[in-house]
Write a structure and sequence with these properties.
Strand content of chain A: 15-25%
CATH class of the largest domain in chain A: Alpha Beta
GO molecular function, one term (chains A, B): aminopeptidase activity
Radius of gyration of chain A: 22 Å
Structural class of chain A: alpha/beta
CATH architecture of the largest domain in chain A: Alpha-Beta Complex
Keywords (chains A, B): Aminopeptidase, Hydrolase, Protease
Number of strands of chain A: 16
Largest sheet of chain A: 6 strands, mixed
Largest interface: A-B, 80 and 80 residues
Protein name (chains A, B): Xaa-Pro aminopeptidase
Number of domains of chain A: 2
CATH superfamily of the largest domain in chain A: Creatinase/methionine aminopeptidase superfamily
Number of helices of chain A: 11
InterPro entries (chains A, B): Creatin/AminoP/Spt16_N, Creatinase/aminopeptidase-like, Creatinase_N, Pept_M24, Pept_M24_MAP, Peptidase_M24B
Helix content of chain A: 25-40%
Distance between the termini of chain A: 41 Å
Organism (chains A, B): Primorskyibacter sedentarius
Oligomer: homodimer
Order of helices and strands of chain A: HEHEEHEHEHEHHHHEEEEHHEEEEEE
CATH topology of the largest domain in chain A: Creatine Amidinohydrolase
Chain lengths: 382, 382
């Protein structure tokens, strides 16, 4: 399958981008990354794991997108709504599609500006030497895309929201089964493997992200892979998963206590849930990303600032994190259809923290939870 | 855990890179991608799945590397052998580490050239706008790294080879269990989920890559995700996995026939195994990547050229594909320690192909298989 959406959805995305391109004076967009290509085409493959082959999409300010891709992807691209598919035999270390791409961009831009994402969260997925060669062939430099693609992707369609809700429901069923796989004495790396297995059994297509930790009364870190250390009574086990269904992520976590939590841990967890609700209560159109940060930070620190984790939530969708950041500097105004995480964290003691995370979608009126919002009590494991 | 290797291994890698840097006149290297950072530090996390935060490593031509990273990664980086760790609070859309990075590069390069990977298979994992800002702060442009990092990574240490062998053994045990999960009537997407589960049960840390297909007498495509179509008698089921253990990949596949294969399919599969052996027989130091291509192509097409898949194998290690390509244009000379796949493919009928893949390591003398080389007969499923 090449994505869960019908052609009308992709055409609407292209149309919206083209409106912005015309306003910004951009005659053609060059897109090079997995989510950018998939957003406009529905092209869904795990083959991006290989760094060898570049993939390009050229989006003119009017007319349909043109795929400029390695021939190994032609059969799959033909299953999408894209009809203009130009291929080369990759890998070809000498050219690797640059000549074909330059010709296509010239044709699409007709002498006008060519944009590509250059701002926050972007990267160009092609060698810099090939960018230089491309610009020489074009006789001009690429310009910034004015953040068009990132901004468009922030507001999800109902079909996208449904896909994320499905991913969240799968993770919810997996979290409910954690007591079966995580007990005192179980090595953390086995718990990680077993939890990924549960995600697959519950319907994940794949599990690109799992982080977590287990330590007495809180953990030092939320991005580490698993150690072989067995779970001990008094540990807090945190599992944070980004599983994918039909190309869309969930991203939320659960904390569990091995045996009953002590008073500090219990109170810290309850405070995280309070912070989550403080943001949820004001998460509606017109509020800003910074407002949600401040609502949580008031509960967490009395408004003192922020933890070293850097932000208290973020957008998500085709990527584990994308779009807005719940930080004081992000003044993005919430709109219906934005999907985001609320991710409050707090330090229980020096070097020991707890982090909690839920997923929500902004609606007209109150926000809608996509993950099953946790109560104040942590799950207790034996 | 931050990788399976001891500090001496990372120091040896740094030392080798520094020798080449001095020969090329490069005073400091800037590295920005996951495998590049991990190669020199052992920093292993799945957090790279998030595109929001850039991560940098500065490698001076003499002295230890310097990590310039978001503070969320400091605790994990401190577990590696790296001691000079400089952090900023990310995400910070306004600067996002560029100022800190510029200062560190100036200090490390002392006015000399600063290189970064710009060639084949590389990309720069930071926004282009931030590259421009960095170069403005430095008062100079970055230059190409002369392919130093890619070339070094091609030749694996014994510890790396052992890690890849472990990944291959895990996949081998999972492939052996395929008859339990793939029978006539099983939907392909369920087979994909179940196969990933088997990989985890057999010891994979995670399963970043699974592709495959099932169709009568051969498939049109080897990069597609699974459809919901049930397996039918007469189908060839192909599963191609890149699972990870301790940060190292395997990458090989197996073809299975639903019911006994017909004569054409059987003969095509046997030819792929013949082609694999033709390459294996000559895979030793001194032969080139192109030689292996030609040895396989002679069996596959009588030396006519190549399939649209583009290459008949590739290097692997920290990435699913990396380093050399078995194509006529790649004249890389094989050296002991190079790990690669042999991946012959053939067209059984128009639009229907079979592809086979195994993993080997180049040794003094004959190459050593890392995956259990398949016999000529396909596995038969009920």
């Amino acid at each position: 399958m090449t994505g869960p959406f019908d052609t009308a959805e992709y055409r609407a995305r292209v149309h919206a981008a083209q409106g912005e391109m015309q306003a910004e004076g951009i005659a053609a967009l060059l897109l090079t990354t997995e989510p950018e290509l998939r957003y406009f085409t529905g092209f869904l493959t795990r083959f991006w794991e290989s760094p060898t082959r570049p993939w390009f999409l050229v989006l003119p300010a009017a007319g349909d997108p043109i795929a400029v891709i390695p021939s190994i992807g032609a059969a799959l691209m033909q299953q999408t709504w894209i009809t203009d598919i130009r291929t080369w035999r990759a890998p070809d270390p000498a050219d690797n599609g640059v000549t074909l791409l330059a010709g296509t961009l010239k044709e699409a831009a007709q002498g006008g500006d060519i944009g590509t994402p250059m701002g926050f969260e972007s990267h160009l997925r092609m060698p810099l030497a090939n960018l230089a060669r491309l610009q020489a062939l074009l006789g001009r430099d690429l310009r910034d895309d004015a953040d068009i693609v990132r901004r468009l992707r922030m507001v999800k369609s109902e079909a996208e929201i449904a896909a994320i809700a499905t991913a969240c429901a799968i993770a919810g069923r997996a979290f409910a089964r954690v007591p079966k796989i995580a007990r005192t004495g179980a090595p953390l790396d086995r718990v990680f493997r077993d939890f990924q297995r549960l995600c697959l059994e519950e319907g994940a297509d794949w599990v690109p992200y799992l982080a977590g930790a287990a330590a007495a009364g809180g953990y030092a870190d939320v991005i580490s892979p698993a150690t072989t250390k067995p779970l001990e009574r008094g540990d807090v086990l945190m599992l944070d998963t980004g599983l994918v269904r039909h190309g869309y992520f969930c991203d939320y976590n659960r904390n569990f206590s091995l045996g009953p939590p002590d008073a500090d841990t219990r109170s810290a967890h309850a405070r995280l849930i309070d912070a989550t609700h403080a943001a949820l209560d004001i998460a509606r159109p017109g509020a800003t990303a910074a407002d949600l940060f401040r609502a949580m930070d008031a509960v967490l620190t009395g408004g003192q600032g922020r933890g070293d984790a850097g932000r208290l939530g973020h957008g998500l969708g085709m990527q584990l994190t994308e779009g807005l950041s719940l930080i004081p500097q992000d003044h993005t105004v919430l709109q219906p259809g934005m999907v985001l995480t609320l991710e409050p964290g707090c330090e229980v003691a020096p070097g020991r923290m707890l982090v909690h995370e839920e997923d929500i979608v902004i609606r007209d009126g109150p926000a809608e939870p996509l993950s099953p919002i946790s109560g104040p009590e942590m799950g207790v494991l034996e």
